[in-house]
Amino acid sequence: xxxxxxxxxxxxxxxxxxxxxxxxxxxxxxxxxxxxxxxxxxxxxxxxxxxxxxxxxxxxxxxxxxxxxxxxxxxxxxxxxxxxxxxxxxxxxxxxxxxxxxxxxxxxxxxxxxxxxxxxxxxxxxxxxxxxxxxxxxxxxxxxxxxxxxxxxxxxxxxxxxxxxxxxxxxxxxxxxxxx
Length: 180
Prior knowledge:
The chain is α+β, with helices and mostly antiparallel strands and 180 residues long. The protein has helices at 3-11, 24-38, 51-57, 95-103, 119-124, 153-162, and strands spanning 16-21, 47-50, 61-67, 79-83, 86-91, 107-109, 112-114, 129-133, 147-149, 173-179. It has a domain at 1-42 and 57-71 and 139-180. The protein contains 6 helices and 10 strands; from the N terminus they run αβαβαβββαββαββαβ.
């Protein structure tokens, strides 16, 4: 697929307002910033790994996109807290399912559900917990086998500077898209 075709597809996605192809130096800097963020404790619980961004950066063509409030974030779990292959907690965006999980006695913190039967594991093996950030499923990009990652706050800030956004604008976000 030609770069122009990819840019045309990305430009048609509602909420993407700017696109820039990342060079090798920028990809290395993003990888470094992301690894630094992953080494810190997330949500006061554990360290993390951003699979979405890591996989996107490993593709042949990598684009950073600036998004606005019109961008449709997938209503699917993007964060899972695991302990050796067991899901301890995950984010849920379906209100009905969220209420059901709460009624079942699970701990619900905003959109994060901590499963009651996993609380013991969480306490006993806290050092083995890992927060996993999954790739974003974007329907418009499925046909071109793109991987989409939501970057950490330090990478988000780095990318916004690349886009010329120098002051805090919470209505703007960033995503990283990788395509072979």
